[in-house]
TrEMBL record:
Subcellular location: Cell envelope
The protein, known as: ABC-type Fe2+-enterobactin transport system, periplasmic component
Keyword field contains Metal-binding: no
The keyword Metal-binding is assigned to this record: no
NCBIfam families according to UniProt: PRK10957.1
Residue ranges of domain Fe/B12 periplasmic-binding in the record: 89-366
One Pfam family named in its UniProt record: Peripla_BP_2
InterPro entries assigned to the protein according to its UniProt record, in alphabetical order: ABC_transptr_periplasmic_BD (IPR002491), Bact_iron-sidero_bind (IPR051313)
Ranges for region Disordered: 34-54
Source species, domain of life: Bacteria
Length: 366
């Protein structure tokens, strides 16, 4: 595999000519520049280090990630993006990135949202685990999974974050977003541990100390929970039943964000092998999750303790699994060892990692 190339975005991209081009793309929109002193006041003053600084961003060509294998993020090229000064007005086009921005107290002023009405978000499309934080900080919800260039321009950002993949990606429209004329960074939150993502966002926003503090808080909470609980019967399965109630389910491995929390607690995770799990299509080569179709669930459901993550199925996920006829003879069903976990765990960040620890503490306290 060829090593990913690096390229530095031209300074001209951030020039006045490019800004004018971006505004032309959104014809009829009023000028979006505001009082710079007001903008600076919104960002706080707890930055670390010197500016400008250069960060790595996944490269995009022809509206797709520039990868030799679109299914393998490690084959994707990267490019250098220069951030000239500490950001004061950040727009997150991806709801999956916004929690990490809030966790490090970065000045995020607006975000794309998730589809409203699910169990994992509220009417604004914010994820439940950080919705209150976003409201307290005055974060504006720009859209629900349908990026709108005009709304990005109106938010007057000095840094824009884009998800490389997932339902909230804005990669197909990246060229137009880059034409706004401010730094744009493309991040792969789907395949990153939340700690790594928090650290990376801390570095690009000058909030390294805040990022380190959140990770330290998590590590301390892990120690507290390990001391306060009786470890559940091992091995443990982390199961996310399909929201469409097809009987399919995803099993999280120790490389998934949820699985890493279990591993931090010293638990043994069991996952289905290649003879049971899907290895085709979008699941080919994936190491964080194994999907099992309905007819094979009895072979995959081997955990002596099962944590069932609510995927928006509209009912208690533990009860749903207990009532699947194919699972009736499994150990976890026979011994009442299936426990419901909240929907906030579907997409992991600092807030949901702490929520997972709190739920485990509640379930297995001595």
């Amino acid at each position: 595999m060829l090593a990913p190339f690096r390229r530095r975005r031209s300074d001209a991209l951030r020039g006045a000519t490019t800004v004018a081009a971006a505004l032309a793309l959104t014809a009829g929109l009023a000028a979006c520049s505001g009082d710079s002193s007001d903008d600076a006041a919104t960002g706080g003053g707890s930055g670390d280090g010197s500016w400008p600084r250069t960060v790595s961003s996944l490269a995009v060509e022809n509206h797709h990630l520039d990868c030799t294998d679109q299914m393998d993020i490690s084959t994707c090229a990267t490019e250098d993006v220069e951030i000239p000064e500490q950001p004061q007005r950040i727009v997150s086009t991806a709801v999956g990135l916004t929690g990490s921005l809030l966790a490090v107290d970065a000045p995020v002023v607006a975000t794309g949202g998730a589809t409203t009405g699910s169990t994992a978000d509220n009417d604004e499309g914010f994820f439940n685990q950080w919705a209150d934080e976003a409201r307290d900080k005055g974060v504006e919800s720009l859209w629900q999974l349908s990026p709108d260039l005009e709304k990005i321009v109106t938010a007057d950002p000095d840094l824009i974050l884009v998800a490389a993949n997932g339902q909230d990606t804005a990669v197909p429209g990246l060229e137009k977003i880059q034409a706004i004329g401010v730094p744009v960074v493309v991040l792969d939150y789907v395949n990153m541990d939340w700690k790594d993502l928090t650290t990376e966002i801390g570095e690009m926003t000058g909030r390294e100390a805040d990022a380190a503090a959140r990770i330290e808080e998590y590590d301390e909470r892990v120690s507290e929970v390990k001391a306060s609980i009786e470890d559940p019967e091992q091995p443990v399965s982390l199961v996310l039943p399909s929201a469409d109630k097809s009987g399919n389910a995803n099993y999280m491995t120790a490389e998934s964000p949820q699985g890493r929390v279990a591993a931090d607690l010293g638990w043994e995770l069991t996952v289905p092998g290649d003879d049971v799990a899907r290895t085709d299509g979008p699941f080919a080569g994936r190491t964080d999750v194994r999907q099992v179709t309905a007819e094979n669930q009895d072979k995959a459901f081997t955990g002596h303790t099962v944590l069932a993550v609510d995927s928006g199925i509209g009912e208690d996920p533990a009860e749903y699994l207990k009532n699947m006829p194919i699972l009736a003879d499994t150990y976890a069903v026979q011994n009442d060892r299936i426990f419901a976990m909240p929907p906030e765990l579907f997409r992991m960040d600092y807030y949901s990692a702490m929520a997972m620890l709190n739920r485990i503490d509640e379930l297995f306290v001595k």
